[in-house]
Amino acid sequence: MKEIGDHIWQTVGIENGPHIMIIGGTHGNERTGVEVIRALVDQDFQIDAGVLTLALGNLKAIEIDERGSEPSHDLNRTYRSSLLETEPTGTYEDQRARELAPHLKAADYVIDLHATNKPSEAFLCSLLGPEQQKLHKFFPVSKVLSDRRYVLGNEPVTTDEYAETFGGTGMCYETGLASDTYRVKEVLGELSGMFSGMGLISGQPTPPGETSQKDHYELTLNILLTEAGFTWAPGFGNGSWESFMAGQTVGYHGEELLVPDYDGVVVFPKIAKHLHVGGSVGFLAKRIDSDKI
Ligand SMILES: [Zn+2]
Q1: For residue 147, how far is its CA from the centre of ligand 1 (angstroms)?
Q2: CA 279 to ligand 1 center in whole angstroms
Q3: Which of 18, 50, 289, 292 is deepest in the core (most CB within 10 A)?
Q4: Cα-based angle 169, 121, 252 (whole degrees, multiple of 5)
Q5: CA of residue 36 relative to chain centroid, distance
Q6: End-to-end CA distance of the chain
Q7: Dihedral (C-alpha) 154, 160, 166, 168: value to the nearest 10 degrees?
Q8: Distance from the CA of 115 to the center of ligand 1, in angstroms?
């Protein structure tokens, strides 16, 4: 593989084929993605067709094993559509996003490898169109979380959303728990199945696993931390996919109850060190009928 930028590598196949980009370490403490990228680069992974771009995301954060280079900095909230047309903000995350953005724009498919800070089964995050679903089938997870209304960042701000803005297909893969790298080999195997299925390497594509059937969910609420503080109700906030019923109290903003009027789930509950006023405490999502997408 050829290093074409700072910790950005690329290999080009002899035949024509799609351009796939894979990123690890957009959040520095999410180690599985970092290990997966290092493994592919170390073995000088080659392809027969198309283009494969690999990148490590937040280099400073990876070095210190933290989510961002500073508390509350987040590379995956930095990819606004106007990023390259606006003045640099001076943060490391803004600088790194500018280095990665042209590659995200150039790829047909962008897969960003993440991990959660509280326990969760592995799951995918992406829109639910035919191009995204082409990717879904290579990953043996049972849940896909979409955010077509940009609940996460009010506008496109993540790697996958940036790719989508410029005509590509983006997906984030939540591979498991951040500190735990026991799934590295499995994820490498899944990516290898995807490379053959998408035509980058020749040979028989691996047939999709038993869990190729996915349940679809959509983000409904970004629970923001206010000066009043926030407490989860008993049984909530310990991990992703805790389910609640309409009318159930999920948490408290100070004295004020948070009571959704729909059945749903808690996703991405934050750990204490990632909390700051104005930032997220966690998110709510609800299951959606795949026929109504
Ligand atoms: Zn992440």
Answers
A1: 15
A2: 15
A3: 50
A4: 100
A5: 15
A6: 39
A7: -140
A8: 5
Q: How far is the CA of 36 from the centre of ligand 1 (A)?
A: 15
CA of 26 relative to ligand 1 center, distance in Å:
6
Angle at CA 161, nearest 5°, toward 215 and 185? 60
Query: What is the CA(255)–ligand 1 centre distance, in A?
Result: 31
Q: How confident is the model at residue 142 (pLDDT cuts 50, 70, 90)?
A: very high
Tokens of 285: 């999502």
Give the integer Cα–Cα distance in Å for 61 and 160.
20
**78 is written with which tokens?**
């930095």
Among 1-10, 109-118, 208-217, 251-260, where is mean pLDDT lowest? 208-217
What is the CA(14)–ligand 1 centre distance, in A? 33
Token code pair at residue 73:
């900095």
φ, ψ of residue 57 to 5 degrees: the values are: -80, -90
Banded pLDDT at 147 (limits 50, 70, 90): very high
Instruction: Give per-residue pLDDT as tens, 169-207.
Output: 999 999 999 888 999 999 999 999 999 999 999 876 666
Judged by average pLDDT, the poorest of 57-71, 192-206, 211-225, 235-249 is 192-206
Look up the pTM and report it: 0.95
C-alpha pair distances (Å), 227 with each of 72, 257, 278: 16, 15, 8
Domains of the chain plus CATH, in order, are 2-212 (3.40.630.10), 218-292 (2.40.50)
* pLDDT, average across residues 135-150: 95
Residue 85, C-beta contacts closer than 8 angstroms, at least 6 positions apart? none
Ligand 1 geometric centre to CA of 202 (Å): 31
* Range 101-119 average pLDDT: 96
